[in-house]
């Protein structure tokens, strides 16, 4: 099986759509890779794959090798900089046009998920992150079934559950937590995404989608709360256009001034507008969310053991 | 037609390994298909062709409904349910209009919470299931009403979901409605195909697409528009939600989900569909949804409400209804 050389498998789940599963997957992958781990990302959202766009590799195509498919490389390992390799597989790479829809009923999706789990040549990986579509249906059932059947004991480290703070979202995410307990997938923890937005003009923090809902839910279900992640338009811009995050002077994250940290060197200025997947991890280092995800990643790694 | 998954093999690769076996990339047979070799071929349940006998029943049941509107988006969390519920409230502002909302999101139903009727259950009578009435002229149907516990997960594969959607259409006593709004889950799969095939005969006015401004969302919405074209559903228009956020402290306008590729307006133009408008982010909308209140009634003067009224006006035009018959004052 293609997963035999993968050490840990982490699922990124949420009952609700658009809460940032793919954003969180992207950032977890970048953080793990920046910490020196080799990382693979498998996107099983078949009708709405976002990972190719997130990693800025929409043009890439999957190649076939004897025995399976080769995932697309986002960046290679760089032992000097302590960065691990990052590879990605998504249905998006198999479509002819980026606007094409796969209109599939359940059985076809099931078969595709199974194929993704059995036919992708991942090679040696420390972590395989699996990004999922919203809901608790065909893709999830197939994923759980196949992993329970084929994975080594302990190989499936568990699920990171993403939510936004408002009650409408947590109502759906509670269903996902129950899905995990019914299917025996351990829950690593809950991440509350889109928790507050800091106005770039006056630094007033507005809780657009309310606040604290994820933490309360984690407490209720007695699962670990991994952290609250605010909305950062600079991260959106990084993903959307490859712009290097720039913050107004005096922006503090965890007591550290991050403004101007990237704008000083000539090289940074030169690469700031280039859209290049290989530079993504480098640019992400300058994002205000990086320290947050660094901590979340360390917590996850510690929790998995 | 689903796009082909066959990827041409790199030439160099083939030359190097002429004998390598190509991985199987053939789409699998549908579940429970006996296959052409089997003795059951053509005799098993799902080999039975011909029209679905339930479709005339559905058409009869829905014959008293004047307009059926789907709310679609390839992307999750862009505000399909929020928009559906607000549209429901907007249409129901005039007492003469009877409005129904059907929630086809089986795994993540949000409509009952947004309408403040989460704790209700469905009443079954000899003639069918009665929807839950939020107000005298606004009824709701959702799987949430059928769950023993609020947090229960509905872990169903496609065919079971299709069965429930059919039952919602066949057995729910909507009575005479002016508008039936159908809220859908994200994606282009079972629920969407089923709703379309079951409603085809009784007629769908069309679909409203909801998106957010950033390209990651537009990418999925593009797929949904492609789906509508393939399925023959008329696209009534595109609504851009969460476009811009006005800081309540300094009134500075931020583009949280920046439209780097032109947003919904550019997509609508590219696809040749009407653009119905932009609705800004307002924390009060989310709060109204959490408490199950009508944002329309609570904050009639907010910019988001004004924008929504514009959208409703554009939408009524598309389905050939006089806007004055929907929006009472102004």
What does this structure look like?
The complex is a heterodimer of chains A (305) and B (330). Chain A is an alpha/beta fold. Chain A contains ten helices and 14 strands. In chain A, the strands form four sheets. An eight-stranded mixed β-sheet of chain A has the order 5-6-2-7-1-8-9-12, sandwiched between helices. A two-stranded antiparallel ribbon of chain A has the order 3-4. In chain A, helix 1 (21-34) packs across helix 10 (290-304) and helix 3 runs parallel beside helix 4. The longest helix of chain A has 17 residues, at 167-183. The mean pLDDT of chain A is 90. Chain B has 330 residues and is an alpha/beta fold. Helices cover 33% and strands 18% of the residues of chain B. Chain B has eleven helices and eleven strands. In chain B, strands 1, 2, 5, 6, 7, 8, 9, 10 and 11 form a nine-stranded mixed β-sheet that branches. In chain B, strands 3-4 form a two-stranded antiparallel ribbon. In chain B, helix 2 packs across helix 5, helix 5 runs parallel beside helix 6 (190-199) and helix 7 (215-231) runs parallel beside helix 8. The longest helix of chain B has 17 residues, at 215-231. Chains A and B meet through strand 3, helix 3, helix 4, helix 5 and helix 7 of A and helix 5, helix 6, helix 7 and helix 9 of B. Chain B: This is Bcnbp35.
Indicate the mean pLDDT of chain B: 86
Q: What general outline of chain A do the C-alpha atoms trace?
A: globular
Based on the structure given, which CATH architecture of chain A is correct?
3-Layer(aba) Sandwich
- Helix-and-strand structural type of chain B: alpha/beta
Order of helices and strands of chain A: EHEHEEEEHEHEHEEEHEHEEHHH
Q: State the total count of DSSP E strands of chain A.
A: 14
Give the overall shape of chain B.
Answer: globular
Describe what is shown at a glance.
Chain A has 305 residues and is α/β, with parallel strands linked by helices. In chain A, 34% of the residues lie in helices and 20% in strands. In chain A, strand 10 and strand 11 (205-206) form a beta hairpin.
């Amino acid at each position: 099986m293609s997963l035999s050389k993968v050490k840990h498998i982490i699922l990124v789940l949420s009952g609700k759509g658009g809460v940032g599963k793919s954003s969180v997957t992207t950032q977890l992958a970048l953080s793990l890779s920046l910490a020196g781990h080799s990382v693979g990302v498998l996107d099983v959202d078949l009708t709405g794959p976002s990972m190719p766009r997130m990693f800025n590799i929409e043009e890439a195509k999957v190649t076939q090798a004897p025995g399976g498919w080769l995932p697309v490389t986002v960046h290679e390992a760089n032992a000097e900089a302590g960065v691990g390799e990052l590879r990605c597989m998504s249905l998006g790479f198999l479509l002819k046009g980026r606007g094409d829809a796969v209109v599939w009923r359940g059985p076809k999706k099931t078969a595709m998920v199974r194929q993704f789990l059995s036919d992708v040549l991942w090679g040696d990986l420390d972590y395989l992150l699996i990004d999922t579509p919203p809901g608790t249906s065909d893709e999830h059932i197939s994923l759980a079934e196949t992993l329970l059947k084929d994975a080594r004991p302990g190989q499936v480290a568990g699920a990171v559950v993403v939510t936004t703070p408002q009650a409408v979202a947590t109502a759906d995410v509670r269903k996902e937590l129950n899905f995990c307990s019914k299917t025996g997938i351990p829950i690593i923890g809950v991440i509350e995404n889109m928790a507050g937005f800091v106005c770039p003009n006056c630094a007033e923090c507005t809780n657009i989608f309310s606040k604290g809902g994820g933490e309360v839910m984690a407490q209720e279900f007695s699962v670990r709360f991994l952290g609250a992640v605010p909305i950062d338009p600079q991260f959106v811009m990084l993903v959307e256009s490859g712009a290097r995050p720039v913050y107004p002077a005096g922006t503090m994250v965890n007591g550290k001034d991050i403004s101007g940290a990237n704008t000083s060197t000539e090289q940074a200025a030169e690469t700031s507008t280039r859209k290049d997947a290989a530079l993504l991890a480098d640019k992400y280092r300058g994002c205000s969310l990086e320290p947050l995800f660094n901590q979340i990643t360390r917590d996850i790694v510690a929790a998995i053991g | 037609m689903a796009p082909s998954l066959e990827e041409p093999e790199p030439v160099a690769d083939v030359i190097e390994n002429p004998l390598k076996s190509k991985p199987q990339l053939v789409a699998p047979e549908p579940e429970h298909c006996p296959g052409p070799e089997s003795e059951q071929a053509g005799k098993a349940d799902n080999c039975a062709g011909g029209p679905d006998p339930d479709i005339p029943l559905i058409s009869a049941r829905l014959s008293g409904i004047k307009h059926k509107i789907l709310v679609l988006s390839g992307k999750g969390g862009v505000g399909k349910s929020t928009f559906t519920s607000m549209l429901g409230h907007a249409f129901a502002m005039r007492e003469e209009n009877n409005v129904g909302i059907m929630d086809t999101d089986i795994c993540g139903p949000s409509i009952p919470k947004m309408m403040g009727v989460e704790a209700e259950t469905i009443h079954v009578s000899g003639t069918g299931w009665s929807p839950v009435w939020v107000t005298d002229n606004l009824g709701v149907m959702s799987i949430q009403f059928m769950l023993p516990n609020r947090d229960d997960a509905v872990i169903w594969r496609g065919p079971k979901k299709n069965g429930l959607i059919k039952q919602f259409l066949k057995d729910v006593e909507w009575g005479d409605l002016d508008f039936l709004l159908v809220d859908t889950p994200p994606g282009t799969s079972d629920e969407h195909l089923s709703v379309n095939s079951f409603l085809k005969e009784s007629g769908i006015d069309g679909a409203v697409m909801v998106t957010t401004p950033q390209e990651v969302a537009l990418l999925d919405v593009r797929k949904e528009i492609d789906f509508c074209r393939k399925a023959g559903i008329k696209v009534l228009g595109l609504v851009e939600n969460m476009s811009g956020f006005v800081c309540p402290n300094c009134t500075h306008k931020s583009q949280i989900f920046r439209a780097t590729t032109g947003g919904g307006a550019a997509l609508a133009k590219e696809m040749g569909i009407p653009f119905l408008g932009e609705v800004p982010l307002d924390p009060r909308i989310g709060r109204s949804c959490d408490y199950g209140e009508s944002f329309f009634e609570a904050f009639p003067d907010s910019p988001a409400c004004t924008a929504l009224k514009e959208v409703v006006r554009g939408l009524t035009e598309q389905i050939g209804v006089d806007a004055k018959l929907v929006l009472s004052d102004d």
